[in-house]
Amino acid sequence: MAAPFNPPTNFADKPEVPQWVPPPAPTEDLDYAKLHSLDLSLLDSPDPAVVQQLVDTAKIAIRDDGFLYLVNYGISLEQLHRQFSIAQYLHRNISEEDKERLHWDPQGGLYAGYKPPFGWRTIKGKYDGISQFNFYEEEFKSLDRVPTCVHPFMDEITAFCDYLTRSVNRRLLKLLSKVLEMPDDYLWDNIESHNDTCINEGYLRHALFAPFKHEEKGMGENLRMFGHTDFGTTTLLFSVPVTCLQLWGRDAIWRYVQYSPGALVVNIGDTLELVSGGHFRATRHRVHNPPPSQETFERLSVVCFNGSKGDLRMQPCWESPLIKREGCFESQGAYKEFKALQDKGVPIPTNKEWREISIINTRHPTDEPQFKEVMVEGVKMFEVINQGVRVLQPV
């Protein structure tokens, strides 16, 4: 049975951290996506029938939605709120000197460091109200790479990230390996990047979405982030009350993801869609302005983006009994486009190349000029060519 999270508790020698207080949930009757909820603790059940039911539910959730709620994964609500309090503390106390010193450079293919609330490029762009600090491998190796204000809390941040990657995500990948009918550690051993650091080739993000002032509300077509898929294996996003996250359904309708206290909102990245031959769905999602009842609230976000081994060139797990039996789904986005490239005899990008070009070409609502717009089956899409791969994202 998986051990629960056991974080450092030596708070006495640290600065006082004001407690993060979750804002109230929206009062509107919103159109919510109907997502499956998976109890990760059931993976340890001694009853094979219970485990198989969990696997069957996971198979449906990742095929139909690509998003799911994960509960009972080992972190208590109190422990989680402590991490949100630390993230809030970072954004309240990071110095102007550290903002400049640790300024990010996404044009280099990484989101590492501090993102100011002015666009999605290295240079200052239009105000977008989104501040971030992104912890990559190097940030966990050296205190010089993180804001001075969180130096006293890096033991807690590191322990938290380590638990997310080595316990929560490893168990989740075990479950997904079972869906592929492969050995339990297939995805962990062969696809997921893991070494002696807690984050490996992924990253941990502390993000703060400031509420827009009245004159800013229409900025970016009422969007904070455009529709996109994540480029890694899995994304672990902690559910928050300020309701902005939307996912693109198979019926081409954007729906909100409802707040579920303490739950992890998990989505599948491009890598796992490719490995599964389209059985796992990398679902497009975006960040919208919150509903009117939450317009004055900050949205604090803590996210763990898990990464795959950088030198791998992704292709389906042909030895999977599931794929042998049911074949691949060429209608899926990432898998369909990668296969088209492969069919032409063109080498597909490595994981490292794919994530770096995806970061470099990230499009944001405040960007100018606009990317190319195309119509696909009556739906307006943005088109980008990344490493020869055609990427389509709904507006």
From TrEMBL:
It holds the Pfam family DIOX_N. SUPFAM superfamilies: Clavaminate synthase-like. Transmembrane segments: none annotated. Residues 219-306 form the Isopenicillin N synthase-like Fe(2+) 2OG dioxygenase domain. Residues 38-138 form the Non-haem dioxygenase N-terminal domain. It comes from the Eukaryota. Residues 1-24 are annotated as: Disordered. InterPro entries: DIOX_N, IPNS-like_FE2OG_OXY, IPNS-like_sf, Iron_ascorbate_oxido_reductase. Gene3D superfamilies: B-lactam Antibiotic, Isopenicillin N Synthase, Chain. Coiled coil: none annotated. This is Fe2OG dioxygenase domain-containing protein. It comes from Kwoniella heveanensis BCC8398. The lineage of its organism: Eukaryota, Fungi, Dikarya, Basidiomycota, Agaricomycotina.
